[in-house]
Amino acid sequence: MAGELDRSGQGQPEIGSLNESGLMNALGEAACVCDAQGTVAWSNELFRHYGTGVAEKVREFCREAAVEFAQLWGDHDGENPQKRRTYRFVTDSDHRHFKVKIAPLSAGPGMRVAAVVVEVTKHERLKQKISSINRAGRELVHIETEEVRGLHAAERLRVLETKVTRFAHELLSFDHYAVRLMSPETRKLDLAMSAGLTPEATQVELYAEGENNGISGYVAATGKSYVCRDVTKDRRYVVGMAHAGSSLTVPLRLFDRVIGVFNVESDRVNAFNAMDQQFAEMFASHLAMALHILNLLVTERCATSELATGTMQGELNEPLNDLAVEAEWLREQAAADPEATRHIDRIVRDVDSIRRRMQNLAKGPGTLLGVDEAIRQGRLDPALSGGRILVADNDEHVVQTIRDVLASRGCEVIAYDTGQAAIDRLEAAAHTGERFHLVLSDINLGDRTGYEVFSAARKLGGDVPVILMTGFGYDPHHSIVRASQEGLQCVLFKPFQAEKLVDEARVAVVKMKMARVGC
Question: Of 106, 164, 469, 471, which one is least surrounded by beta carbons within 10 A?
Answer without folding.
Answer: 106
